[in-house]
């Protein structure tokens, strides 16, 4: 029997020991999916799989699952994102069955931004379960073949069991507080059954390195594939905004200085991203990179190419 | 205690029918302590209604010990009989019980009931308890993960915790899970943070249906 | 509603200011009544609202000069209560009535007199419009 859990391309590449590259896409805010065509074109062949965000920052968009079908039909492998904010355990499990049926295999289990950030702050929040419980629930569905309530995943007493088998992912944030707890939180997610994690975008390489050292010391990298997140810097304003207004992102002053003193911020941003990828490839325990270039998807191919990571490998 | 605050007076005026006899009824228990519906507040609101733009036939005010207890509601029977409308300054439980006792009168809420909480200092009340029916305070060093965490997580903190604050309001809101973590750490009980807490049984909270508590041993 | 205006004043700086005002020959018309408290800090909304709803046209809370409250910050506390009552009167649409906070310096008899009469006149103008 294959050791692979989901047989997704991402899982296979990681099992083959490849340094993987994942990207990210935000679905449209209307039922016009064609606006994604350019982005799909930009990412196809440049990355191994693409995260599809799910009502990110609590702003209503086409669901991650709905969008995943569209990109699968166009040859891109999705990483479906599932947040806990909008759905209870019934809806989540039902959506997962539907997603799997239609070909989705990679699943990122997230808590979800608080609805006060988005365009429907008056909505009732759900959080019936949290991301940790979600990971465990999806693992139970796959490995124990049961629903969260304990019932077997079969159509009737005499029917065969047909369980959804996802490659289970989660987010990891080495920079959020309490800092000393963050590796333990990853350990907890590993115990819950996570197969891979994508980190929050890294700007503070020292802090990240320190986190990875602790991760490796606990052998967590052997249980969980770790993809380091990067968001290429495109403007000084963006960098400053993230430093002042976005929780859980650490930006060293030295980096701000570097970008204040450069003539071409975009070029410098790409150069920094390439430095980061190079360092990640040399870092023990880092199995790949997750490039979050929302609204700048066209820049991804250039970065991956200049990092020497093209063409992307085939899954065996 | 139950914490509530008065509705804006223009909303109260909108609710009240013109030219009627209004009885403002306060409560001497929870809403007195949170300065929303006690004797003093009854006097202030009664005075405001007497001076308001909208005309009423009569505005009278009084306060009873508790509006969530029939014993005290029954005491004002005659006063209610002489009114057309009762404006209750109690919490939602009190308003409803008043309405059950005097179903032929319009009983209106002057307050918005907010939460079960504690008085943290002069003029400051904090939500503490959701009444989820399944208390886990033994696992979280006496800090509730449902109320103190904006997302009600059982396995927090999430990635939005920074400098001990919650990203929902980084200036004013403490990250509940950071509070739990720090206290567990000081109690040498960080081991409590490692086991994965299973999903809550929401059927014990209001989600399971309107709740009742019955004690057979106490019934007459 | 009558035309009476109630001056709620403290026993310290405000009392001295009123006394000074009288000594200097500035008299208040009979519609002005006074009510003494140890400190304006003990003013509460019930006092203000009940006097108004019982017929007073206005209530003036007269305390010591801002930094000079003999009980530390009683006058500042009073100002917050006055502000709350002002809002309430406005939101309830209580026409023609007013509540004001005045910080009195014991040596400014003439100014105090003008301020108080000013409230009375403004009240009248409002009543006429």
Structural class of chain B: alpha/beta
- The overall average pLDDT of chain B, rounded, is 96
Count of structural domains of chain A: 1
Query: What is the string of SSEs of chain A from the N terminus onward?
Result: HEHEHEHEHEHEHHEHHHEH
Which blocks of ≥5 consecutive residues of chain A have pLDDT under 50?
none
Order of helices and strands of chain B: EHEHHEHHEHEEEEEH
Q: What spatial form of chain B do the alpha-carbon principal axes imply?
A: elongated
Shape of chain A: globular
- What oligomeric state best describes the polypeptide chains here? heterotrimer
Mean pLDDT of chain A: 95
The assigned CATH architecture of chain A is Alpha-Beta Barrel
Beta-strand portion of chain A reads 5-15%
Tell me the total number of β-strands of chain B: 9
What does this 3D model show about the protein?
The complex is a heterotrimer of chains A (316), B (220) and C (129). Chain A is α/β, with parallel strands linked by helices and 316 residues long. Helices cover 39% and strands 14% of the residues of chain A. Chain A has helices spanning 9-15, 37-43, 64-73, 89-101, 131-144, 182-192, 205-217, 220-223, 236-245, 253-260, 265-282, 298-306, and strands at residues 20-25, 49-52, 78-83, 106-110, 167-172, 196-201, 225-230, 286-291. The relative contact order of chain A is 0.15. Chain B is α/β, with parallel strands linked by helices. Chain B has two domains: 2-114, Rossmann fold, CATH 3.40.50; 134-200, no CATH class. Chain B contains seven helices and nine strands, in the order βαβααβααβαβββββα. In chain B, the strands form three sheets. Chain B has a four-stranded parallel sheet with strand order 3-2-4-5. In chain B, strands 1-6-7 form a three-stranded antiparallel sheet. In chain B, 40% of the residues are buried. Chain C is built from four helices and four strands, in the order βαβαβαβα. In chain C, β1, α1 (13-23) and β2 form a beta-alpha-beta unit. The relative contact order of chain C is 0.24. The model of chain C has no long low-confidence stretch (mean pLDDT 90). Chain C has a single domain, classed as Rossmann fold. Chain C is an alpha/beta fold and 129 residues long. Chains in contact: A-B, B-C. The B-C interface holds B 8-10, 13, 40, 43-44, 46-54 and C 44-46, 49-50, 52-53, 88-89, 91-95, 97.
């Amino acid at each position: 029997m294959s050791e692979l859990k989901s047989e997704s391309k991402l899982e296979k590449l990681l099992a083959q020991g490849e340094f993987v590259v994942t990207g990210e896409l935000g679905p449209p805010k209307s039922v016009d999916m064609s606006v994604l065509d350019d982005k799909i074109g930009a990412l196809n062949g440049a990355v191994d799989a693409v995260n599809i965000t799910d009502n990110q920052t609590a702003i209503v968009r086409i669901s991650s699952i709905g969008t995943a079908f569209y990109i699968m039909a166009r040859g891109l492998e999705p990483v479906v994102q599932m947040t806990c904010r909008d759905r209870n355990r019934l809806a989540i499990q039902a959506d997962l069955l539907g997603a799997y049926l239609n070909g989705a295999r990679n699943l990122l289990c997230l808590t979800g931004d608080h609805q006060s950030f988005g365009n429907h702050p008056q909505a009732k929040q759900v959080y019936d379960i949290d991301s940790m419980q979600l990971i465990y629930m999806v693992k139970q569905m796959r490995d124990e073949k049961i629903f969260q309530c304990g019932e077997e995943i079969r159509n009737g007493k005499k029917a065969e069991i047909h369980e959804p088998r996802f490659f289970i992912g989660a987010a990891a944030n080495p920079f959020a507080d309490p800092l000393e707890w963050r590796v333990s939180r990853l350990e907890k997610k590993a115990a819950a059954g996570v197969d891979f994690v994508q980190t929050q975008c890294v700007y503070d390489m020292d802090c990240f390195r320190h986190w990875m050292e602790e991760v490796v010391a606990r052998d967590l990298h052997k249980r969980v594939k770790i993809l380091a997140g990067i968001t290429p810097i495109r403007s000084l304003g963006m960098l400053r905004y993230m430093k002042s207004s976005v929780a859980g992102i650490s930006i060293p002053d030295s980096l701000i200085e570097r970008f204040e003193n450069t003539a071409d911020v975009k070029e410098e941003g790409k150069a920094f991203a390439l430095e980061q990828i190079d360092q990640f490839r040399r870092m023990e325990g880092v199995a790949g990179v997750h490039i979050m270039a929302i609204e700048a998807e066209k820049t991804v191919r250039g970065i991956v190419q200049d990092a020497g990571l093209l063409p992307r490998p085939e899954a065996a | 205690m139950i914490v509530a605050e008065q509705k804006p007076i223009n909303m109260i005026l909108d609710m009240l029918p013109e030219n009627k006899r209004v009885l403002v009824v306060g409560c001497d228990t929870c809403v007195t302590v949170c300065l929303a519906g006690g004797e003093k507040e009854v006097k202030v609101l009664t005075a405001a209604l007497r001076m308001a733009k909208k005309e009423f036939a009569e505005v009278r005010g009084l306060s009873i010990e508790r509006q969530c207890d029939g014993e005290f509601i029954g005491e004002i029977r005659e006063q209610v009989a002489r009114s057309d409308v009762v404006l209750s300054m109690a919490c939602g439980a009190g308003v409803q019980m008043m309405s059950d006792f005097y179903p032929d009168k319009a009983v209106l809420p002057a307050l918005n009931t907010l939460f079960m909480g504690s008085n943290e200092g002069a003029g400051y009340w904090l939500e503490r308890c959701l009444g989820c029916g399944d208390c886990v305070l033994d696992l979280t060093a006496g800090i509730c993960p449902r109320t103190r965490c904006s997302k009600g997580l059982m396995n927090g903190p999430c990635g939005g915790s920074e400098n001990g604050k919650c990203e929902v309001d980084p200036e004013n809101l403490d990250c509940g899970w950071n509070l739990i973590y720090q206290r567990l750490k000081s109690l040498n009980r960080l081991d409590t943070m490692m086991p994965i807490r299973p999903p809550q049984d929401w059927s014990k909270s209001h989600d399971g249906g309107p709740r009742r508590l019955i004690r057979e041993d106490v019934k007459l | 509603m009558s035309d009476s205006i109630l001056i709620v004043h403290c026993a310290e700086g405000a009392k001295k200011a009123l006394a000074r005002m009288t000594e200097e020959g500035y008299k208040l018309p009979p519609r002005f009544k006074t009510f003494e408290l140890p400190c304006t800090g003990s003013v509460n909304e019930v006092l203000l609202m009940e006097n108004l709803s019982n017929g007073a046209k206005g209530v003036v809370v007269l305390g010591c000069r801002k930094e000079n409250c003999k009980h530390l910050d009683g006058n500042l506390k009073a100002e917050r209560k006055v502000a709350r009552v002002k809002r309430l009167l406005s939101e309830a649409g209580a026409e023609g009535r007013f509540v004001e906070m005045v910080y009195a310096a014991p040596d400014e008899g003439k100014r105090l007199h003008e301020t108080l009469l000013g409230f009375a006149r403004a009240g009248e103008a409002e009543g006429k419009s």
